[in-house]
Amino acid sequence: MTAQLTRDRRPLPRVPALRVLEYHLVGYRRTWRAGAFSSFLLPTLTVLGFGLGVGSYIDQGVGGVSYLEWIVGGLLASTALQVAIAESTWPVFGNLQWQKIYFGQRSSPLRVGDILAGHLAFVLFRVLTSVIAFLLVTGVLGALRSPWAVLTVPVAALLALAVAAPTFAYAASVDSDSWLAMLFRFAVIPMTLFAGVFFPVESLPLALRWLAYATPLWHAVDLCRAAVLGVAPYWSVAGHLAYLAVWAAGGWLLARRVLARRLVV
Amino acid sequence: MTTGRPLIQAQGLVKRFGDFTAVDGIDVEVRAGEAFGFLGPNGAGKSSTMRMIGCTSPPSGGELRILGMDPVRDGPAIRARLGVCPQLDNLDPELTVRENLTTYARYFGIPRRVARARATELLDFVQLGDRADSKVEPLSGGMKRRLTIARALVNEPDIVLLDEPTTGLDPQARHLVWERLFRLKQQGVTLVLTTHYMDEAEQLCDRLVVMDGGRIVAEGSPRALIERHATREVVELRFAAESQEAFAGKLDALGERVEVLPDRILVYVPDGDAAVAEVAALGLHPANVLVRRGSLEDVFLHLTGRTLVD
């Protein structure tokens, strides 16, 4: 009788994480309009504000290109960072502590890894659509010097995973959402200011320079800037990719452990 | 009594959290088609047991087989055939009522078209058909609970697990939930529920175990348990005096057993009205007299010396 019961298995989804992604997309369908507007508006304003506004005071440009052309790759990477972290802080915290969505998912055939992968897939979707919008706007404004700029898309995807996975782990482990605001104050904002987005890292004192090199953002900034300008990056491409991949893989393992500790009690 | 195949088998099942033992070696067997209950006060180990059966909490000891499978090794395959209604609703308040069902159905590998059809059918069943396209946020507690029950049915489960299905609902909403669950039971769906409401257990359960402090203290049908541990009728007496104790001694001869509670005395008797007459004959004048049927509350009181709901 036991054998007969065991045989009666139901077909499960082949890639369960895609079903989780589908859930997140259904929710996003309600809010995408506001999001899409800001994905176009934000790069337009930043390019105009920083590139043209600030750039007009920088006559010599940076390294032989105009400030606008220099800054656009960095702004793209920092946009990817902002979206990735926004989508893996409060949404993760809320799904665990407020609406308890993950607990509902956990009662279905989904495994902890599926729930995590589905959420990260949605983060990736948000980052990629934002980055593509950014490229469209800056391309139309003539700020992209090279067709290699399309390579910023996979770089942004890797950066997104490199920051979203450890952020997921952090958001899943804290017990109060005031810790999330701390993350922005003490990690995201300093990283955005000092990881080479607005000025070359080389203008920092040596000690701070190494802090900048340690951030995942600087590696993506260097790659994106090189792609947009059509030049070789400051550091080795393989080195950058490997460094970001280590953040992504480490973050994944950490996030899965933290989420399992929350959901498997 | 029930002849269905065993769907849940637990032997010596244990759940520990650090030094605390929440479930302390219980034996349970639930068969196909029955409505099985775990009755007990808060902290008795009911929810921990439910989470182990729901394959979201690995047992710390003992044997557990669900649908013939091992919950640790075959978790996803077992969960594919369970329907779970948790104690706290975890619906998505931002989605519509219908979307909550269709997105959830997708986790089970159900095709979109089937998911939509099933959502319509289930929303009619839980009487939310007219709210299908409204958001979940403004729904009342009872409606949300019914929606959670509908969601638990979306994969046509072999077993439906309900953890305190009516806790926190007002009486009217509670009756509506009971009525739907009773309908499910009539359709032959296997129900496993926890509750600390004796009337819920009496109405819905074919068989139940009474849990206290992580152990099973009694098992049987509600009627059999009442016959074994209580009497057909119970007389509740309230005396105006500060302490009820003083009167208890005089009542001993009246029935099979007397229980003294802080605010009243319970006398267990075959015939309530006859006992009330005897109380008067003894020259006692309680401020308040109530004759009622023996219930699971009395069973629990007898077994543990405590009341179910404080």
TrEMBL record, chain A:
Protein name: Transport permease protein
Main location: membrane
Gene Ontology cellular component annotations, sorted alphabetically: ATP-binding cassette (ABC) transporter complex
Pfam families given in the database record: ABC2_membrane
Species: Verrucosispora sioxanthis
Keyword Calcium: no
Family in the record: Belongs to the ABC-2 integral membrane protein family.
Alphabetical list of InterPro entries matching this protein: ABC2_TM (IPR013525), ABC2_TM_bact-type (IPR047817), ABC_2_transport (IPR000412), Nod_factor_ABC_transporter (IPR051784)
Subcellular location as annotated: Cell membrane; Membrane
Automatic annotation (TrEMBL), chain B:
UniProt-listed InterPro entries: AAA+_ATPase (IPR003593), ABC_transporter-like_ATP-bd (IPR003439), ABC_transporter-like_CS (IPR017871), ABC_transporter_ATP-binding (IPR050763), P-loop_NTPase (IPR027417)
Protein location: Cell membrane
Gene3D superfamilies assigned to the protein according to its UniProt record, in alphabetical order: P-loop containing nucleotide triphosphate hydrolases
One Gene Ontology MF term: ATP binding
Keywords recorded for this protein, A-Z: Antibiotic resistance, ATP-binding, Cell membrane, Membrane, Nucleotide-binding, Translocase, Transport
GO biological process: response to antibiotic
Ranges of residues in domain ABC transporter: 8-238
UniProt family annotation: Belongs to the ABC transporter superfamily.
Name of the protein: ABC transporter ATP-binding protein
Organism: Verrucosispora sioxanthis
